[in-house]
Design goal:
The chain has about 400 residues and is of the alpha+beta class. Helix content is about 50%, strand content about 15%. The strands form 6 sheets. The protein has a 5-stranded antiparallel β-sheet, with helices on one face. Helix 2 packs antiparallel against helix 5 (about 170-190).
Length: about 400
């Protein structure tokens, strides 16, 4: 009779799944054939089936099979997602030149410019990977998603400055940059939902699995480093030493996330939450190389913040930043030395650990057995319609989706 096959994973030549008799392996080209081999529907059976499947199939070609696919709109999903990212990058580039905050453009402030250029470069790389297709499409989608998640808080903090200080502080550059972020976030999310056939689908083929064995220690280190980086983002990074000719000196720190107006604090807290969430998801994401893409997307904007801080230190601080006029500074013989606090270097150390973990995840083998697939609790033949196949009255379903012929 015909047994409906519910595929769980598929490679270039073979697929693994379940029919009414248990787990089995079928060829992709001939899904109506007898399974090459069958195993009982138990955890041990699934482990044995997966081990055999990864012996037959090239691990790099194995992908999860989405169930049930529900197309959201017409084919061309990858192109649409990449187009949204491209539009977002274009808006972001346009937003570099008009006034951003308090009448100053991003292009006129090197420390701001370098951070935003890094965001735009990451989104551009995401779009390129999505268009490349295959496994790179998912990696590109996760890269863009990580960047969008973390930068959401950074843009919210900038918007919070306008909310707290008045609409006159915001300029066209801020509006264009926010619109660009929205397009890039939408494009990254759309790319995550693109199915194998190029349509947008709500199915979720990704697998979240708890690290085991030798992978447990590095995963714990990754999560701890992510939480540490998130916590180290809050303290003051900037330090200034003001000295006058008389020999007196004053040490000042700036940049504490919780010393700002409430809307700005909300944005900074969102950055920390987004970073921690992305790191934890990346630690559990399978295949691990896709988790590395998500992690890289979260690291890039945080690294951009560190680079921006160093650029700002290199520019020096004008006396006006401390409410001192140039004439007063000259009269007092004032000199200002800029630097960074120990909290900044701790933050950088955590980022380096995250980057090392990200590189390590690229080399984790993906052919370890995943958790056994969970199938719907509905009958294998949902239509429940039968007719006799012969005089022996062996039942055969009138309809079947993806089926396999087996002897009953």
């Amino acid at each position: 009779m015909f047994d409906k096959v519910m595929s769980a994973y598929r490679g270039a030549t073979y697929q693994i799944g379940r029919d009414r008799h248990g787990y089995g392996i079928w060829t992709v080209a001939a899904p109506r054939s007898q399974p090459l081999q069958r195993w009982p529907e138990t955890p041990d059976g699934w482990a044995a089936a997966w081990a055999r499947f990864t012996e037959l199939e090239v691990p790099e070609t194995i992908v999860g099979v989405a169930r049930p696919p529900r197309a959201a709109f017409a084919p061309g999903g990858p192109a649409i997602a990449a187009a949204l990212l491209g539009a977002g990058v274009a808006l972001g580039v346009a937003g570099l030149f008009p006034a951003y905050l308090d009448g100053a453009s991003l292009a006129s402030q090197p420390f701001q410019l370098v951070a935003h250029v890094i965001y735009l470069a990451a989104w551009t790389a995401s779009a390129a990977l999505i268009l490349a297709g295959g496994g790179r499409r998912q990696a590109g989608a996760l890269l863009g998603t990580g960047v969008s998640a973390v930068t959401s808080g950074l843009f919210l903090a900038d918007l919070g400055t306008v909310i707290a200080g008045g609409a006159h502080l915001g300029g066209a550059g801020l509006v264009l940059s926010l619109a660009g972020w929205l397009c890039c976030a939408a494009g990254s999310a759309a790319a995550l939902l693109v199915g194998r056939d190029g349509t947008l689908s709500t199915a979720r083929p990704a697998v979240l699995a708890r690290p085991r064995g030798a992978g447990l220690g590095p995963a714990v280190l990754l999560v701890l480093a992510g939480l540490g980086a998130a916590a180290a983002f809050a303290p003051s990074w900037d330090s200034y030493t003001l000295r006058i000719a008389a020999g007196q000196a004053r040490y000042i720190t700036a940049g504490n996330a919780f010393a700002n107006p409430a809307p700005v604090i909300a944005g900074d807290v969102m950055v920390m939450i987004a970073l921690a969430a992305a790191v934890i998801l990346a630690a559990f994401w399978r295949p691990a190389r896709h988790g590395a893409a998500l992690l890289a997307g979260a690291i890039i904007p945080m690294a951009a913040q560190a680079i921006s801080a160093l650029v700002q230190v290199g520019q020096g601080a004008p006396p006006a930043q401390f409410g001192i006029s140039p004439a007063q500074a000259s009269q007092l013989g004032l000199t200002i030395s800029s630097g960074v606090t120990p909290a900044f270097w701790i933050y950088c150390a955590f980022l380096i650990v995250l980057a090392v973990c990200c590189a390590w995840m690229l080399f984790i083998p993906d052919h370890v057995p995943p958790a056994a697939p969970i199938y719907p609790n509905e009958p294998i033949y949902p239509n429940e319609q039968w007719r006799p196949a012969s005089d022996t009255a062996v039942p055969v379903p009138l309809e079947s989706g993806e089926d396999a012929r087996s002897k009953g």
